[in-house]
Backbone:
């Protein structure tokens, strides 16, 4: 059997195992080591299998992951989401759709720090949805805004997904964080555009809430300071060259802990919960990353990516058609894989193809993250929708998905803009390098 | 669940949290010293790597004890009758993979010990980095075994 065929069988076996409820990390490792052995013999396969966990366990670049997760967990436990929603509401107050726009703004800001779109969806659905319901908002729009808004954070830096992409694709974390800023903000703005358009088409879905007075608005906007400090340290600290990503994450986490304790928003039990959540999430993620590296060693050995590149080149398809088929592939995968696994599994196979088409590795990181984001709100496994439902059990899941579907237009628009104007992503990293 | 598994998982989580806080504090101190006194901590990089391995691999068995691995459960609504069987197979697969991982890591660790490599800044023996990883994977394998025993169907 040719190595390429083995590679293809490996990918299929992996998908079968994952669908059969084998933990993603275990499935990746099992297929990776078996496939490697089938090509290169068990002796070498076991050497690889025994070395990869260790290489990753102490890889300095990965130390950024648990530290960013800690910063996010502390920000969640310290209730920074409510103040943020109030502040965002003050900013948008006055026009139709203000509450939904404020939800988007608060979700974007909170999820960028928190790093987990599910945690954002969970806390924001408790904070923002009741407020929108009180003002007579359409329930689909209210929950859809939270579901989709929560996904903004996996693009806006600091983002754990971008770190993981950086590691598996061997790209610079700093460049990726710089490349993600404008697309992330643009996507948030596009979400607001969607709300404005819906408010114009269906005014009854979003009744106008009374305008707040200027002084009141200014006072409420100050509630953002905590997250603003964290964002400045963790993101601009990196852009400005003050910190390496790991240092920025450590400083951000320490600042979040200090702010949490100093303002009395977090006490010892919440802090302990945040720590426990962080170490468990990190260990879980690392184990998936280890599995993915074992799997990608096997994939590299099969030369499957090179074969796919050659095959696609022989078909003489335009780059755009290939990109479009990748979008379809990711949307299908997004139906049953969560975003981290999806990126870890596909990037070793897909990135060589994308780069052979002349696309930049940094640019593709942004592109694929937007796609992964869309997967969080599309049925059947749009995780964010289920998280919101668990917080608001009276809302039917279909309502949430239908509401969130409106915002897929924003995701699609951003993807098109990224293809048409790659500079949206690539300008800032180039400028920062001078 | 307030049985001994939950207690062990909490304990491991607590120890891992201490390592994590140490990693954070060390990095922050390094940044501050560099900014204020232009004197970064010698070998901070190597210590962070060591603390990272300790954090992750102390917590790994707890992930298995709490059954918190990333699992795709879309099929659960489609074939609900098969779920218990699939769970059992997944648990056995986890144990097999982890056991094989222990078995293939052990000779690597022995080589490292025999070579007596040390890190460049602090001259820490390389084996220090292997111990937490190996212990964590062994612990995860034990945890996976415990979870299989627990899975016996209720009468």
Residues:
């Amino acid at each position: 059997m040719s190595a390429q065929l083995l590679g293809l069988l490996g990918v299929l076996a992996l998908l079968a195992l994952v669908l059969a409820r084998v933990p993603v990390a275990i499935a990746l490792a099992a297929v990776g080591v078996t496939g490697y052995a089938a090509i290169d013999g068990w002796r070498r396969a076991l050497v690889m299998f025994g070395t990869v966990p260790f290489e990753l366990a102490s890889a300095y670049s990965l130390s950024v992951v648990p530290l960013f997760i800690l910063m996010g967990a502390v920000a969640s436990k310290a209730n920074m989401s409510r103040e943020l929603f109030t502040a965002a509401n003050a900013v948008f107050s006055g026009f139709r759709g203000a509450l939904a726009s404020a939800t988007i703004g608060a979700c974007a800001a909170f999820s960028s720090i928190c790093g987990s779109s599910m945690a954002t969806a969970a806390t924001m659905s408790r904070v923002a949805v009741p407020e929108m319901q009180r003002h007579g908002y359409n329930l689909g729009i209210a929950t859809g805004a939270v579901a989709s808004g929560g996904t903004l954070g996996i693009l806006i830096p600091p983002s754990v997904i971008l770190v993981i992409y950086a590691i598996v694709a061997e790209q610079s974390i700093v460049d990726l964080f710089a490349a993600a800023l404008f697309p992330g903000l643009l996507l948030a703005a596009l979400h607001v555009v969607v709300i404005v358009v819906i408010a114009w088409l269906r005014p009854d879905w979003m009744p106008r809430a009374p305008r707040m007075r200027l002084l009141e608005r200014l006072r409420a906007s100050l509630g953002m300071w905590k997250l603003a400090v964290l964002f400045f340290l963790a993101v601009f600290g990196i852009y400005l060259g003050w910190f390496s990503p790991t240092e920025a994450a450590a400083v951000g986490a320490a600042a979040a802990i200090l702010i949490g304790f100093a303002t009395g928003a977090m006490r010892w039990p919440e802090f302990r919960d945040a720590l426990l959540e962080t170490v468990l999430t990190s260990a879980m993620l690392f184990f998936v990353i280890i599995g993915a590296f074992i799997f990608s060693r096997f994939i590299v050995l099969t030369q499957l990516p090179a074969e796919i590149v050659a095959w696609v080149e022989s078909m003489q398809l335009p780059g755009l058609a290939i990109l479009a088929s990748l979008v379809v592939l990711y949307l299908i995968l997004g139906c049953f894989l969560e975003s981290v696994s999806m990126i870890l599994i596909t990037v070793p196979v897909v990135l060589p193809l994308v780069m052979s088409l002349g696309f930049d590795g940094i640019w593709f990181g942004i592109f694929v993250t937007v796609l992964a984001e869309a997967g969080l709100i599309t049925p059947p496994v749009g995780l964010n929708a289920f998280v919101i439902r668990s917080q608001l059990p009276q809302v039917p899941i279909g309502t949430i998905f239908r509401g969130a579907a409106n915002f897929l237009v924003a995701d699609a628009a951003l993807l098109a803009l990224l293809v048409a104007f790659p500079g949206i992503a690539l300008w800032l990293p180039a400028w920062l390098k001078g | 669940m307030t049985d001994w598994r939950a207690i062990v998982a909490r304990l491991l989580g607590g120890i891992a949290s201490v390592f994590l806080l140490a990693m954070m504090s060390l990095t922050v101190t390094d940044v501050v010293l560099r900014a204020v006194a232009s004197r970064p901590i010698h070998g901070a990089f190597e210590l962070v790597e060591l603390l990272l391995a300790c954090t992750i691999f102390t917590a790994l068995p707890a992930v298995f004890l709490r059954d918190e691995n990333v699992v795709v459960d879309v099929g659960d609504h489609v074939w609900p009758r098969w779920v218990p069987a699939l769970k059992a197979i997944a648990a056995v697969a986890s144990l097999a993979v982890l056991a094989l991982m222990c078995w293939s890591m052990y000779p690597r660790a022995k080589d490292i010990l025999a070579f007596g490599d040390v890190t460049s800044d602090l001259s820490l023996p390389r084996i220090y980095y292997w111990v937490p990883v190996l212990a964590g994977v062994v612990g995860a394998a034990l945890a996976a075994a415990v979870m299989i025993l627990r899975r016996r169907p209720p009468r």
Notes: Chain B is about 75% helix and 0% strand. Residues 114 and 127 of chain B are 9 Å apart (CA to CA). Chain B touches chain A through 63 residues (CB under 8 Å).
